[in-house]
Write a structure and sequence with these properties.
alpha/beta, binds adenosine-5'-triphosphate, Rossmann fold, 8 helices, 6-stranded mixed β-sheet, about 220 residues, 4-stranded antiparallel β-sheet
């Protein structure tokens, strides 16, 4: 059994009276891919924000690579790539310039940019501003940025949003490939077919885990 890279222990998160998460335990090992499923408001995004250090639990603990995760953890920001549910971008920078900025900030060579643009079918849009992109193309740019930077854990919140079926297929390939390079993946989705790329599927309901197992155990019928 591989040592856990991310360990969430007894984590709850309340917003005023609302309990968004109730005593969640979760471990993700290097190279493991875990999918979170569950209805709207079940706590998936809240758990992902806590897992990547962008929010703190009300109670419970989060460890990354054996060390407690702290507020504004520079170590975590250096090693965890996030594709969130918002389409954040800089309006004056082209697609290529966004990726160049990420390469500079994370001190990685810019040579891979062309290959990533091509993989994400963005090569024809490299010199476009975000205002000239479709929402699916913007989502593809953010995915390319996450894949350009170094990472031990990749966290994605509903990454299939805005993508057409072919782009969703490429996304599934990307998620599978990450495991092969030892990167841990934790993602939330509303698509059971995408959850099938994971080794483990966790279903949340009302802030609690109601199922946890392999895709075959949890997703009894394709599409269920
Ligand atoms: N900043 C916040 N302030 C108050 N309540 C919040 C906040 N963020 C989340 N919540 C509440 O916490 C609960 C869980 O929300 P969360 O966004 O984690 O659900 P989700 O499973 O990601 O939903 P969806 O599938 O719609 O994205 C919801 O009831 C939501 O209203």
């Amino acid at each position: 059994m591989r040592a856990a890279l991310l360990t969430v222990t007894g984590v709850s998160r309340t917003f005023g009276e609302r309990e968004a998460l109730r005593a969640i335990d979760l471990e993700v090992a290097a190279g493991e891919c875990v999918a979170l499923l569950g209805p709207n408001g079940s706590g998936k995004s809240t758990l992902l924000r806590i897992a990547c250090g962008r929010d703190r639990p009300t109670t419970g603990e989060v460890h990354f690579d054996g060390e407690p995760m702290t507020e504004d953890d520079v170590r975590v920001r250096a090693r965890v790539a996030v594709v969130g549910d918002a389409l954040g971008c800089y309006p004056d920078l082209t697609v290529r310039q966004h990726l160049e900025l990420v390469a500079v900030a994370h001190r990685v060579p810019a040579e891979r940019i062309d290959a990533l643009l091509s993989e994400q079918r963005l090569n024809g849009h490299a010199d476009s501003l975000p205002s000239a992109l479709s929402s699916g193309q913007l989502q593809a740019m953010l995915l390319a940025a996450a894949l350009l930077r170094p990472r031990d854990l990749l966290v994605l919140d509903e990454p299939e949003q805005r993508l057409d079926p072919r782009a969703r297929g490429r996304l599934a390939d990307v998620l599978r490939a990450e495991g092969g390079t030892g990167v841990a993946v934790l993602f939330a989705t509303h698509q059971p077919e995408l959850a099938r790329v994971a080794q483990r599927v966790i279903v949340l309901e009302d802030g609690a885990v109601v199922a946890d197992g392999s895709p075959d155990e949890v997703l009894k019928e394709p599409g269920e």
